[in-house]
Every structure is written in C-alpha cells, then in structure tokens.
C-alpha cells in the first residue's frame, strides 16, 4: 500500500539543549538515518519544520519535501496535522526525527494493518508511541475537534479515532529489543545510541 512518510523535525530540543537533528550517530546525522529508513515507503518524504527551521544536507533516492508548520506553536500535534494535511496519500507514516533505530519490517507491518483504521500505533504496557504511527487523513477533522475542545496532545486523537493498538507480541516479532522507539532526548541518550549503533549496524536494525 502506498503511504506518505512524514518526519517531524520542528521540535525545540529543549531537553537536549541544542538542535539535535544534526547530531551524529555512526557517521550519519539523526535525520539522515530516519530518511534512509523511510525512503522505500513512498515517492517523497515530507519533513515538517517550525517556521524558519532548517535541516542539514540530506541524501535520498526520493524527493525530500520541506514544509513548515501550518499552526506554529502547537507542538507535535500541529506537526502531525501539517504533515497529513499536505500529504497526497490517505495513509501517512509519521515519525520523529530522533529515532535512529527504526525497523522497516515493523513499519511495513503497521502500514499493512492501516486500512479501516484512523490510527495504527504501537503500545508497550500502558505506553503508546504517537510519533511512530500511521495516521489516516480522517484524523484531520479529529484534530480540529480536539483543538476546539482546548486539547493539545497527539494522544488526544485516540479518544475519537478508530485505533489499532499494535500489541507487544507483534512488535517483538520484528523488533524484540524495541529499539524502534529509542529516541534522543539527552546527551546520555546520544552516547547510548553510539554504543547501540556499534552493536546493531552489522545486522542493520533498519533493514529490509
């Protein structure tokens, strides 16, 4: 099934202390690693930035389309809305820019599950991964509704969406270490990512 890959790269990196998308893991920037993983899922990758934001030089076999938040200041939810509203696809694979170990097989499984749902989202215990999920365009009126109700979190979408929660056993079939959801918030996370990369690059976590 054809989907639009969308990368949210408009965060303020408050906890990290500086713009983290240019930080290096195993010789590549964080955002380049994400782009590498998404390149096989569509003809273009949409990268959502805050107004005035920028990204480091990227290489990809598909078009990289840089767009800016339609509603600045609304956090990740605004980024999700911007990405899926500007997408030409009904289903949209939305990920954060700081997840260096995504697994293509897991992502394909999520995409395969998406027809008939507004959202397909991984769930581990009580924790869900809203920035590693598939969103249908049917989420647009849902987001407008929750904004009208004064809500601001991506997870608020799930209150009204037809949602498929990816079970732990499904996740573990493809990504038993659950590294797909490892993201970079601190310098310590970046150090750990470097160590993990040296362990995983031989087998390639983001593999076909």
Report on this model:
A hairpin with a 2-residue loop joins β7 and β8 (about 125-130). The mean pLDDT is about 90. The protein has about 210 residues and is of the alpha/beta class. The longest helix has 14 residues, at about 185-200. The chain has helices at about 30-40, 75-85, 105-115, 140-150, 170-175, 185-200; strands at about 5-10, 25, 30, 45-50, 65-70, 90-95, 120-125, 125-130, 130-135, 165. It has a single domain (about 5-200), classed as Spore Coat Polysaccharide Biosynthesis Protein SpsA, Chain A. Strands 1, 4, 5, 6, 7, 8, 9 and 10 form an 8-stranded mixed β-sheet that branches. It contains 6 helices and 10 strands, in the order βββαββαβαβββαβαα.
Structural key phrases:
208 residues; 8-stranded mixed sheet; 21% strand; Spore Coat Polysaccharide Biosynthesis Protein SpsA, Chain A
